């Protein structure tokens, strides 16, 4: 089947194009894109009426967190939330409940990826049980479908193990996603060391923890020839360290979680557990520095860090509450908030959600060009809506943006040319 989307505001960060245009799609592939397309042979024509046509988003960090509640997240609910939020490709990262550290467990996970509409990818564990003590069977994980490795929320404290994982993972051209935190300085902390955390009496981590970790990990990557992905950079100190090490001969990239671009530590007010995150929310100065880094092209990808946490687990005091928030369905809305506030240009916001992560992993999607998969979204940037955690596709879980007013919704999502979502509002 051949169809076209016409009269759109076409935004393709991969080619730095933002202007009038459309696409022609045949058998799941874009065969024409741009301001001048031939639609004579199309079976269907969709008139965008000036709305935004962009690549479907690519989210390199999500978690399903199975088994927390009887009605918890499923692959289906995760995929539904992604489709509604314009995410066409999802990476499932290892975490404490699903470490993805054995070939059998990873193979079982990969077998669940089909028939959900969106594309799923899997990151394998860097160490057994994410304990940081023994390297996982990375070669076998690669054979079972892993496309990179990581150690979840836990930094690999042992430098010998870190060096070994970097060296071995490079044989498979894998990125090693590393949480930038000094294991000792960050142990047991739930906040950034600041005036706010001192007033609240919270165990806190100094920002220099990120700098120390990045400098160590970069040195080990330089020594081993490994590919280092700084996983959820969150402080200006860490950003300064990233700039410094990038002057050396190291293959290094960085992601930022959407929460650290759109929220800060004071959003937690008088210790609202809905804002308990890992990494913790940072200062407003840190947030602004990260937004500037997105503008400057220093951040390769923005991730949702979607981590369903049932409301009951957020009922504990802030320091005891489980960290996490629903964020895959609100990822684009939160980023569009930065656009409407004048903090980001639309093309910059979309770059770190599309071609940026695609280029990291060598994926063909994430661009609106001839020959690319027809993973596309049609956005009305003006529709206002209020986030309601109960109305999101992921069941009964916390969302840090609940009650906030967003502007802009995904009207349609396509993956491989197949329409997987139509906004019914």
TrEMBL record:
Domain of life assignment: Bacteria
Keywords in alphabetical order: Pyrimidine biosynthesis
Domain Amidohydrolase-related: 281-417
Domain Dihydroorotase catalytic: 50-235
A family per Pfam: Amidohydro_1
GO term, biological process aspect, one: pyrimidine nucleotide biosynthetic process
Keyword Mitochondrion on entry: no
Recorded GO CC terms: cytoplasm
GO molecular function: allantoinase activity; dihydroorotase activity; metal ion binding
Protein name: Dihydroorotase
Organism of this sequence: Maricaulis salignorans
Lineage of the species this protein comes from: Bacteria, Pseudomonadati, Pseudomonadota, Alphaproteobacteria, Maricaulales
């Amino acid at each position: 089947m051949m169809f076209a989307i016409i009269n759109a505001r076409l935004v393709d960060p991969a080619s730095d194009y933002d202007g009038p245009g459309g696409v022609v799609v045949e058998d799941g592939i874009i065969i024409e894109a741009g301001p001048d397309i031939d639609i004579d042979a199309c079976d269907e024509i969709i008139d965008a009426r000036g709305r935004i046509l962009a690549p479907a988003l690519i989210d390199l960090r999500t978690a399903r967190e199975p088994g927390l509640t009887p009605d918890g997240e499923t692959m289906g609910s995760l995929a539904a939330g992604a489709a509604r939020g314009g995410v066409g490709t999802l990476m499932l990262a290892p975490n404490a409940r699903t470490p993805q550290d054995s070939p059998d467990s990873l193979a079982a996970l990969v077998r669940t990826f089909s028939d959900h509409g969106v594309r799923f990818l899997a990151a394998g564990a860097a160490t057994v049980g994410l304990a940081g003590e023994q390297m996982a069977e990375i070669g076998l994980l690669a054979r079972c479908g892993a496309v990179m490795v990581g150690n979840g929320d836990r930094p690999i404290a042992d430098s010998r193990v870190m060096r070994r994982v970097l060296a071995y993972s490079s044989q498979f051209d894998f990125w090693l996603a590393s949480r930038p935190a000094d294991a000792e300085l960050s142990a047991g902390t739930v906040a950034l060391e600041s005036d706010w955390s001192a007033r609240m009496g919270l165990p806190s981590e100094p920002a220099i923890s990120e700098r120390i970790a990045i400098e160590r990990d970069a040195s080990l990557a330089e020594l081993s020839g490994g590919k280092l992905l700084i996983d959820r950079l969150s402080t200006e100190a860490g950003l300064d360290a990233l700039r410094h090490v990038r002057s050396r001969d190291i293959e290094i990239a960085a992601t930022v979680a959407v929460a650290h671009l759109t929220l800060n530590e004071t959003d937690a007010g008088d210790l609202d557990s809905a804002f308990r995150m890992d990494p913790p929310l940072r200062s407003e100065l840190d947030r602004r520095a990260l937004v500037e880094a997105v503008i400057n092209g220093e951040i390769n990808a923005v991730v949702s860090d979607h981590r369903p946490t049932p409301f009951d687990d957020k009922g504990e005091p802030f320091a005891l509450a489980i960290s996490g928030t629903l964020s895959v369905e609100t990822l684009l809305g939160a980023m569009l908030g930065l656009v409407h506030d004048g903090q980001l240009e639309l093309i910059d916001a979309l770059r770190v959600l599309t071609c940026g992560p695609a280029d990291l992993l060598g994926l063909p999607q994430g661009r609106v060009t001839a020959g690319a998969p027809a993973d596309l979204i049609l956005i009305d940037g003006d529709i206002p809506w209020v986030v309601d955690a109960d109305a999101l596709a992921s069941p009964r879980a916390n969302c840090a943006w609940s009650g906030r007013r967003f502007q802009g919704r995904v009207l349609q999502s396509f993956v491989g040319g197949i329409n997987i979502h139509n906004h019914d509002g």
